[in-house]
Amino acid sequence: MDTPIKVLLVDDHEMVRIGLAAVLGTEDGIEVVGEAGSGAEGIKLALEYRPDVVLMDLVMDGMDGIETTRRLLQQHPDCKVIVLTSFLDDEKMYPVIEAGAFSYLLKTSRASEIAQAIRSAAKGQPVLEAQVATKMMNRFRQPKQEALPHEDLTEREMEVLRLIARGKSNQDVADDLFIGVKTVKFHVTNILAKLGVEDRTQAAIYAFKNGLAE
């Protein structure tokens, strides 16, 4: 007979743990080895029972599911953490995945879906709730915004550009910034090259269009 998949439940709501333990107890090949009502307790029990899979709540009093996942996997890296939560917002979903969560399910999932996710995790196959997968795909499909030319300017070059936009001459810029005229010319040359413009006037226009001029 195959060794059952050892599962640890981590959720600060007792009724949720009771319900999960009841439904998973009817599944062949799955054994709930422990229940934890907090993140700290979850880490302690994980080190004691060495579960194959942990069902992890995200929002808990004290240590949340994100930090619990991170710390648990640092000490028990072979474990697979399946997030089981009611939340689908970016502030929770992406950080816990980055922390090492293997799968992500919503608490609206059917018992059979949770059981299947546990079996898949034990085989090294991650499972994402359909809404989660769609959300992640949409995020990565969003085109990346190209960096604006002025983002390559140094802090000093930005100071020079703002003064150019105010109509200051090289000598005026040198006096205002307490640097040499040759240094100002050097900065102006770099500014024009980075902005892709031909002269000071075009640089000033660029500054005004992009809200860089006072």
Task: Walk me through this protein's architecture.
This protein has 214 residues and is an alpha/beta fold. The protein has 2 domains: 5-141, Response regulator (Rossmann fold, 3-Layer(aba) Sandwich); 149-209, Arc Repressor Mutant, subunit A (Orthogonal Bundle). Helices cover 51% and strands 13% of the residues. The model has no long low-confidence stretch (mean pLDDT 91).
Concise description?
It comes from Paenibacillus contaminans. This protein is α/β, with parallel strands linked by helices and about 210 residues long. It is built from 10 helices and 5 strands; from the N terminus they run E-H-E-H-E-H-E-H-E-H-H-H-H-H-H.
User: What is the count of distinct domains?
Assistant: 2
Taking all Cα atoms into account, the compactness measure Rg is 28 Å
Residue windows where pLDDT falls under 50 for at least 5 positions = none
Structural class: alpha/beta
Topology overview:
Layout: E1 5-10, H1 14-24, E2 30-36, H2 39-49, E3 53-56, H3 65-75, E4 80-85, H4 90-98, E5 103-106, H5 111-122, H6 130-141, H7 155-165, H8 170-177, H9 181-195, H10 200-209
Parallel strand pairs: 1-2, 1-3, 3-4, 4-5
Descriptors for this entry?
214 residues; alpha/beta; Rossmann fold; Arc Repressor Mutant, subunit A; 2 domains; five-stranded parallel beta sheet; 5 strands; 13% strand; elongated
